[in-house]
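User: Quick sanity check before I run a bigger batch. Here is a single chain. Can you write out its predicted 3D structure?
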Amino acid sequence: MKKQMVIYGSGRHTVPFLNYIAKATGKEKPNMCFIPTASGEDAQYIASFYEVCSQIDVTPHVLSVWINSYDQKESFEEIISRMDAIIVGGGNTLNMLAIWKAQGIDVALKKAYDNGVVMGGGSAGSLCWFNGGTTDSRPKELSIVGGMSFIDKSHCPHYNSETSRRPLYFENIKTGKLSDGYACDDRSAIHFIDGEVHTSVSLNNENHSYYVYLNDGEIVEELIPSTVIS
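Assistant: Done. Predicted structure follows.
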């Protein structure tokens, strides 16, 4: 069973990226589930997901964590296991991961990933799958957050849109606070298969993805060639 993940720099929903993920499932009309925990299940964000899904051939679902036992008779694991693709939204990574751990959603996602459900997302929704990265989830300044390590590398979203991200990512890798890893501009994505880079796709020629690592004490930023999709 292939383990697939498609991550991009920004958490904004776009037709090209969601359509790409839908096609990666290999299903004619896949069940695609949005998990908007990080944004506190923002209503406009959820509406945007449904609007994008109306333009592609998927059956959309939204997983809410704000539930009670009387109204929800299915476990989170049962819902997640029925999906073909999971899209995780942007927002507060730290809060999202804490809720997921309390509810066992992290375990359910890992089981689904191992069983071939395609995982995806941007911003918090890309950072969560890696072993760590920088987040704006705490007060005052960007800080390091640990992820679920589905891919045992670090990650940096918003690489081209937030000026502090890139130098801080370099510094954290150089000092050993973060491992080598992958960075994505807002409109660029990396498709992993079985934990390895399969390809990179972007929405235009100005957005790219990178592999960033240390070599003889110096940072190397290696461009991952990408295909423009629309």
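The longest strand covers residues 196-202.

User: Great, the batch can go ahead then.
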